[in-house]
Write a structure and sequence with these properties.
Elements lengths: L1 H14 L26 H8 L4 E3 L2 E3 L2 E8 L9 E8 L6 E9 L6 E8 L9 E12 L5 E4 L3 H5 L13 E4 L2 E6 L5 E4 L3 E2 L5 E9 L8 E9 L2 E9 L5 E7 L5 E5 L8 E7 L8 E7 L5
């Protein structure tokens, strides 16, 4: 149900509110229609769709970001939390978590992690990335984690070379530093780990990816059985975001939060309101060049 709500929110952010909406379920969940107050009931999702639409504005003034949260009819929403995060658009990027979610394919018996640059992706470019951790978290069960804090963590990835045998990665203070030129083919895999659970999962990579590496490759978790690969979930190379903080709207719906200096780098700021039982979620973004004034 949470996934369905996230999908309809993303769809409306992309194309706006449609003229007609059809609610139809063909999966084995949800299994009940009522009561509407139950979060796993189909009618709860329908009610959620017809919450009041909202509008979130944001702009930078000096070293602060601010704006207003209102309904679509311009009525202020007071006491709401607005979360703010910042993403570098130039420079070396920052160390942070890149996350993907999905559902394990039936028949999975093991998983492994992978890094691809200019390979198995239809992509091309140079990459200068630093990786601290791979993490696979099933919905029910302990996580599988790969770090680079010691030599064993490095050995689990085998020879860290490109397709022609040239070394492209080294260990630096517990972080894997991978450098590849445009045209170098890199396909690195970790050792396999048994995994027999089914259901949803969260896949995350803690990494520092510069904006210049976008389009050159991706991180992946591979789902395997005794015959080979069943499928893979990818996280394309992209800069990680940094949480700035949370602002609370005033009686007139206005909000403001202080921003730290970003040097000479360009950056994007994303403000998000998660919504609640009464109001639809909303977000807005601002792109800035150079240092904050």
């Amino acid at each position: 149900m949470r996934s369905a709500e996230a999908h309809m929110t993303e769809a409306e952010r992309a194309v706006g509110t449609p003229d007609h909406v059809i609610f139809q379920s063909w999966d084995r969940y949800p299994r009940k229609l009522l009561p509407e107050s139950a979060p796993d009931a189909f009618t709860h999702l329908i009610d959620a769709y017809f919450r009041a639409r909202t509008n979130l504005t944001s702009s930078v003034s000096g070293n602060a970001l601010g704006g207003k949260l209102t309904t679509a009819q311009a009525q202020p929403i007071a006491g709401a939390k607005v979360q703010v995060q910042l993403t570098p658009l130039s420079g070396d990027g920052v160390m942070g978590a890149l996350v993907a979610q999905g559902t394990m394919p039936p028949g999975t018996t093991s998983i492994l992690f992978g890094i691809r640059v200019n390979a198995e992706c239809g992509c091309s470019g140079s990459a200068n990335v630093r990786i601290a951790e791979f993490r696979f978290q099933p919905q029910n069960g302990p996580p599988t984690v790969r770090t680079f804090r010691n030599a064993r963590g490095v050995r689990e990835w085998g020879d860290m070379t490109d397709s022609k045998g040239a070394r492209i990665a080294n260990l630096e203070n517990g972080v894997l530093h991978l450098v590849a030129r445009r045209g170098q083919l890199v396909a690195m895999n970790s050792a396999q780990t048994p995994e027999h659970r089914q259901g949803n999962f969260t896949f995350s990579v803690r990494a520092q990816v510069p904006a210049a590496a976008v389009g050159s490759g991706y991180f992946a978790v591979f789902f395997m059985n005794d015959k080979g690969e069943l499928s893979r979930t990818r996280i394309p190379f992209r800069p990680a975001s940094v949480p700035v903080g949370t602002a609370v709207t005033g009686s007139d719906g206005s909000w403001s939060i202080r921003l730290s200096g970003q040097g000479e780098n360009d950056f994007a700021i994303l403000a998000q309101y998660a919504g609640d039982e009464r109001y639809w979620a909303a977000q807005s973004s601002v792109a800035e060049s150079g240092p904050l004034r």
